[in-house]
Specification:
Blueprint (H helix, E strand, L loop, with lengths): L1 H21 L16 E5 L15 E13 L7 E8 L2 E2 L2 E2 L5 E3 L4 E4 L16 E2 L2 E2 L6 E6 L6 E13 L12 E7 L2
Parallel strand pairs: 3-9
Antiparallel strand pairs: 1-2, 2-11, 3-10, 3-12, 4-5, 6-8, 6-11, 7-11
């Protein structure tokens, strides 16, 4: 009986192999729906401040400003930050409307813990921040070209304040307005 049992075992094993290898592969489809989010500042830009000691000559001061931008739209449309301001004033004294500039191309880096498509800037520098008694039309301060700028990232600019030798001492103030919108 052991010979019959062996033949039966071999036959069952061979049949099992035929069944196991005789079936065609089966393919299926997997899907993922990604819904676009929003475009906005991750955190509002902080106030910018300058400290200048008058010397009798023209002087300048620099102030670093960061913009933490979150583009979760998934559109690749790009985005831009535009800016405008009122003139720096202290009572009846005013600094020139051309007093604030950005001289160098800003730096851009992905936020910690975020994988981003670093924004490629489309604005030329130096940039002059528009200023007047009433804030004039805003101009592009930074522009992320199409297919860049996705994810959370920080744009860092260095503003330069030029103070003429003829400036009066005082606590000057100006209102700066930033707008973040879709499109380069």
């Amino acid at each position: 009986m052991s010979a019959v049992r062996r033949l039966l075992t071999i036959a069952l094993a061979a049949g099992g192999l035929l069944v196991a290898t005789g079936l065609p592969a089966v393919a299926t489809t997997a899907t993922a729906t990604l819904t676009g989010g929003t475009l906005g500042f991750v955190a509002a830009p902080a106030a910018t401040g300058f400290s200048v000691s008058l010397t009798g000559a023209d002087v300048t001061a620099n102030s670093t400003q960061t913009f933490d931008v979150g583009d979760a739209t998934g559109s690749g449309a790009g985005w831009n930050i535009s800016a405008t301001s009122t003139s720096f004033t202290a009572g009846s004294h005013t600094l020139p409307t051309t007093a604030v500039t950005v001289q160098a191309v800003p730096t851009v880096a992905c936020d910690s813990g975020a994988t981003c498509s670093v924004a490629t800037n489309g604005v030329s520098y130096p940039y002059s921040l528009p200023a007047a008694t009433t804030a004039p039309t805003a101009t592009k301060l930074f522009s992320s070209v199409a297919n860049t700028g996705l994810g959370n990232q920080t744009v860092t600019l260095v503003f330069k304040l030029a103070v003429p030798a003829s400036a009066f001492a005082g606590n000057y103030s100006s209102t700066w307005t930033y707008t973040l919108v879709t499109g380069p």
